[in-house]
Write a structure and sequence with these properties.
Elements: H1 2-24, H2 28-32, H3 42-59, H4 63-86, H5 113-129, H6 136-162, H7 178-199, H8 207-243, H9 253-327, H10 333-361, E1 369-373, H11 374-384, E2 391-396, E3 401-405, H12 406-422, E4 429-437, E5 441-448, H13 480-491, E6 494-498, E7 507-514
Parallel strand pairs: 2-4
Antiparallel strand pairs: 1-3, 4-5, 5-7, 6-7
């Protein structure tokens, strides 16, 4: 993009420089192209030079140069527009050179009003495109301003080709020169390139990205038709006023075309929006389908891998047992330690494979809903947990019933209770399970008085194979909370952790279990 924008910038700088030189050497061929055409005014050429420099500075991200060029463009074109609006002669038209040709020029040296308007748009574009100003509103304005500049250029060139003076000249004022129109076409093309490059840096393309250029193009065509019809309507009335005054009645055709154009523009914008949204919806459905397929393949792989690896592990543990039996009391302390480590590592890997198998099974089958008592289910889970003798579990729950998948419910709270006991740093501890009923969820809290979890680790504890203590200190697979997170998500529940060892001991896992199970996709 930088190279293309650099080429456009050089073209604009060359155009402005050549025409300025043409005024200095008084060359009609350079300034007018054709003796019957409007000349490109000196200030117009100067503005093209500034515009080219501004685009070049954008390409190389020189923000202060961009802003300087935008300010100079706004000053020259704004003062020119002010002269047209107020009639005040501000002395800028022939400030740099005395003009020698005034073909189709209402004021010597003064650029056309539509030219001044286009340069004001160009100044606004440069100000919005400078990286320091690329806020949300600025990015949106780029998509509106850039096609508007192109539209003004296309209108003017169409007028020259079709011989419709109303398209390149406003009222009785100076006309836009043909090479001025070409210059705006090039400038507008560069502006569109910048606007689209900024917009495509988003994560997702907006409907507005397509609607803005489409609406700008439609408004440009509508404005051109309205200008042409209004021009010819005034010409018709002028002729009839001299020939048949009684027939000199203004037609409403220009206004009808204007209203129809506005309606068509609105319909185009709505149509583009719905087409874009429909395409986005199809893309999202396709991405979701691909994601589900990838997850299913991953679950199948984990299931097969963990299942097939368990048999060799059982064989390794059996070999360790045979070695221990054959060696008996004659083995050295080192050999006994090695055999114990071999058996321990194999047992750890077997536990890890069991956890991985349990993780992969979640979501492989459809949920089976059943109604059960929340307190009774929690008591059953605690009974299955096989907790150490020093761990006391207290349950604060009513006799409410819950409609849910019992297997997912048991999986979540069995792993939470087991995790609390396993990671406790004392021989005696208390685990408190509290159930609170709200209008839409059961809020079930599993709290312990253990060492706690630092806040910096809260985001990663639900990832697989994550443990906060070295495995040589604690035999853990790092899968317990990962299983909790996946099962909770499968059930439509949300889980959060509250813990900060800096302020006190203990960890609280709060599960918001929906009272009405979500619809399964």
């Amino acid at each position: 993009m930088r190279m293309a924008l650099g080429g456009i910038s050089l073209a604009l700088i060359a155009l402005g420089t050549v025409v300025m030189v043409g005024w200095w050497i008084r060359s009609e061929a350079i300034v007018q192209i054709n003796p019957d055409f409007t000349p490109m005014q000196f200030n117009t050429a100067l503005c093209f030079l500034l515009g080219g420099m501004g685009l070049a500075a954008l390409a190389w991200r020189q923000v202060w140069i961009v802003r300087g060029c935008a300010g100079a463009l706004a000053l020259i074109s704004g003062l020119t527009a002010l002269q047209y609006l107020t009639g005040w002669p501000l002395g800028i038209d022939e400030l740099f050179v005395e003009h020698f040709t005034t073909v189709e020029t209402s004021h010597p040296g003064r650029m056309a009003p539509n030219t001044a308007f286009a340069f004001l748009l160009g100044a606004a574009f440069l100000a919005c495109a400078a990286p320091i100003w690329q806020a949300e509103l600025s990015r949106s304005l780029l998509l509106v301003i850039s096609p508007a500049i192109v539209g003004l250029a296309v209108l003017s060139l169409t007028g020259y080709v079709a011989g419709i003076e109303a398209l390149f000249g406003w009222s009785q004022y100076t006309r836009m020169a043909i090479h001025t129109s070409l210059g705006f076409l090039v400038f507008g093309g560069g502006a569109v390139m910048v606007a689209w490059d900024v917009e495509t840096q988003r994560d997702r393309l907006r409907s507005f990205s397509l609607i803005a250029p489409a609406v700008a193009a439609s408004l440009t065509v509508m404005a051109g038709l309205w200008l042409a019809l209004d021009h010819y309507e005034r010409q018709r009335l002028s002729v009839l006023q001299d020939v048949a005054p009684e027939l000199a009645i203004r037609s409403a055709l220009p206004e009808i075309v204007l209203l129809a154009g506005l309606l068509l523009t609105a319909l185009i914008g709505v149509a583009v929006h719905f087409v874009h949204e429909s395409r986005d919806a199809r893309s999202l459905r396709r991405a979701n389908a691909e994601l589900r397929e990838a997850n299913n393949e991953l679950d199948k792989f984990a299931h097969v891998a963990s299942h097939d690896l368990k048999s060799p592990l059982r064989g390794i543990r059996q070999l360790a047992s045979w070695l221990r039996s054959d060696i008996g009391d004659s083995a050295s302390t080192r050999v006994v330690r090695y055999i114990d480590q071999l058996d321990s590592r194999a047992e750890r890997l077997q536990d890890l494979l069991d956890a991985l198998l349990a993780y992969s099974r979640i979501g492989r089958s459809r949920r089976t809903l059943a109604r059960f008592g929340v307190r009774a289910a929690i008591e059953d889970v605690v009974g299955l947990a096989a907790l150490p003798s020093g761990m006391d579990v207290r349950i604060d729950a009513g006799e409410d019933d819950l409609l849910a998948d019992r297997a997912l419910f048991d999986t979540v709270f069995l792993n939470l209770v087991t995790n609390a006991a396993k990671h406790h740093d004392r021989d005696h501890g208390v685990i408190t399970i509290t159930v609170r009923r709200t209008q839409i969820v059961y809020e079930i809290e599993v709290a312990d008085d253990g060492p706690g979890i630092p806040e910096r680790h809260h985001a990663r504890i639900f990832e697989i194979f994550q443990t906060l203590r070295p495995r040589d200190e604690l035999e853990a697979s790092g899968m317990g909370l990962a299983i909790v997170g996946k099962a909770a998500n499968r059930a439509g529940a949300e889980i959060r952790v509250i813990s900060d060892p800096a302020t006190g001991r203990g960890t609280r896992f709060v599960v918001e279990w929906p009272r009405i199970p979500p619809i399964e996709e």
